[in-house]
Amino acid sequence: MNVVPSGFQDLVQSLQYWRVFTLLGWQRVKGSYRRTVLGDFWVTINKLVHIAAIGIVFSYIFQSPRVDYIPHLALGIIFWALIVGNINTSCRIFVMSAGTIKSVPLPLHIHLMQLYWQNLILLGHNILLVPGIWWYAGIDLDLSMIMAVPGLLLLQINLAWIGLVLSIVCTRFRDLEQIITNLMQISYFLTPIMWLPERLLGKVMLPVTWYYWDGDSWISEAHQLDLIHLNLFYHLMELVRTPLLGKPLDPVHWQVAIVLALLGWALAILFFQRTRSRIVYWL
Amino acid sequence: MLTSVARSSEQFVSTDANSNQVGIALKQIVHLEDMCVDFPIYSTSDGSFRKQIMQRISRVQDNSDRIIIRALNNISLKIFQGERVGLLGSNGAGKSTLLKVLSLIYSPTHGRALVAGRISSLLNISLGIDPELSGRENLLIRGTMMQLSKDEIEDVLPEVIAFADLEEFIDLPMRTYSDGMRMRLLFSMATAVSADVLLMDEWLSAGDQNFRAKATERMQSLVEKSGVLVLASHSPGLLKKSCTRGIWLDQGSIKMDGPIEDVCAAYQRAK
Predict the structure, then answer these.
(1) Per-residue b/e over A78-105, b at no fewer than 16 CB within 10 Å?
(2) Mean pLDDT of the B133-161 span
């Protein structure tokens, strides 16, 4: 006998329905550019124009050498589009798909999977600019660049739990979507995309005290924490950007991202398990 | 009113018992037990963060404008293999909500709802299709949503298009279709592969006489094999042609359950 799936079952089923979300994701991307001559290549062109405009203006304003600034900016903009596209749209994904949710029985999480797929397709279009960036900046190809692939996977895994939690909360509390949109706008400026992280690294420090138990007594130790490290988007961004720039990656970014993914998914699954059957009623 | 309900459903169960005695074991497909569906109605102020926060701060619990509507009230229902059930009732009686519970879209707020086997539902003909895509492409999406593989879709497609009688239009965008054409295509697809439970909402009226007759026949042959049909409508005439058992819903409760002729007659008398 079938019943409405629990949150966990819903997640598993949504992966089994991969043919549905890949097909619908493609349709959605194609749909936006239907009846245009260049079709979905407008995605790539739009990003190129965006990068060129900001790159030229801000390399003057910041007095940064363009060969350093533009590759950093370009990769930043490309991956930020993935982050912000997933997070902002996940806030209204169930409301957007309310018609389908209420008339076609599909796992709820499939609508999120479709969104992720759609944004990965858009990323695939923008990635076409990367060889151009390498050529422009004279960056040599290196085997370590491959690390951007697991980096992207870990970034996406993190975006997926954030998306799941936000999609649920924002369906119940409709004001949150506006708050998240504003927070993402602020995060765009707080994350080193338009500016180089070197400008802030080691300069804006937060004094913190670690306490630990050494067996007899509590020991306190004073530390200086780089403020930029509190920005989780900075870590997630570095996972993909640094390898593609051919630079060595600080392992701290991997550590933060892995811990975040584990904690986040544990929270998201518990939360979805509790709310799965209620979401349809909130639409 | 209540006694008549009890009697008619008893009668119905007893017919099942009779057929069991003859040796036909009927498999139960749908099982609803004390099932309720309550809809919370959130007004803008109630759903908002501001209100929630204000309540926390002021410690005043104000639930006065939180409205809950009981859409289905204490429904207990068993549907067995081969039954074709017509849901009858006026607007807002809970027909669509019941179909959504059976489609496993709404999970009951109280009680249990169990449905066996493969479910195929056609609840809203305008949803889940992309008007810019051709009929053929939309069928591909529909088929994928029905968990069919690409090959399986390719196999049924010619038959689906022929049944819908849309060969000339199948490669045109669906926005150019009339309501009737759209309904024909989606109906053909929803009934193309055998399902254990076929759920259809008020929509058959969009087709012309000819197609309606064809569709009724197709639904019957589909269900005769093994499944269950649940069809919602407020037209007793349509249900009499397609169904064997009638369930009359009134304000979320079952008012009458029995052979379709009897239920339709009682329904028409009450109107």
Answers:
(1) bbbbbbbbbbbbbbbbbeebbebbbbbb
(2) 88
Contact with chain B for residue A281, Cβ under 8 A = yes
Min CA distance, B164 vs chain A (Å)?
A: 21
Distance from CA of A114 to the nearest CA of B (A): 13
Q: How far apart are CA A255 and CA A112, in angstroms?
A: 26
Residue B223 has pLDDT above 80, yes or no: no
ipTM > 0.90, yes or no: no
Instruction: Give pTM, 2 decimals.
Output: 0.86
Query: Chain A: nearest CA to B118, how far in angstroms?
Result: 9
| A176 close contact with B: CB closer than 8 A | yes
Q: Inform me whether the C-beta atom of residue A24 falls under 8 Å from chain B C-beta atoms.
A: yes
**Which residues are paired to A238 by β-bridges?**
none
**Residues found in chain A:** 283
Structure tokens, A32 = 């936006």
CB B40 to CB A19 under 8 A?
no
pLDDT higher than threshold 60 for residue B8 = no
Of the listed ranges A108-117, A162-171, A266-275, B112-121, the least confidently predicted one is B112-121
CB contacts, 8 Å: B31 with chain A: 1
User: Residue ranges per domain, chain A?
Assistant: 7-197+234-282
Half-sphere exposure of A64 (CA within 13 A, CB side): 21
* Closest residue, chain A, to B125 (C-alpha): A103
* Statement: residue B16 has pLDDT above 50: no
CB contact (8 A) between residue B115 and residue A4: no
Dihedral sign computed on CA atoms, order A113, A107, A97, B110: negative
Check A2 against B115: CB less than 8 A apart: yes
In DSSP terms, B68 is beta-bridged to: B40
Tokens of B210: 């000819």
- Rounded to an integer, what distance in angstroms lies between the CA atom of residue B214 and that of residue B99? 23
Tell me the pLDDT tens digit for each residue of A154-209. 999 999 999 999 999 999 998 999 999 999 999 999 999 999 888 888 788 888 88
Average pLDDT score over residue span B72-94:
89
Most confident of the following: A226-230, B48-52, B259-263: B259-263
Chain B closest CA to A35's CA: distance in Å? 10
- B197 to chain A: nearest residue by CA? A2
Q: Are A3 and B113 a contacting pair at CB < 8 A?
A: yes
Spatial CB neighbours of B41, under 8 Å, sequence gap ≥ 6 = B66, B67, B68, B69
Q: How confident is the model at residue B1 (pLDDT cuts 50, 70, 90)?
A: very low
* Phi, psi (deg, nearest 5) at residue B48: -85, 155
Residues B133, B173 contacting (CB under 8 angstroms): yes
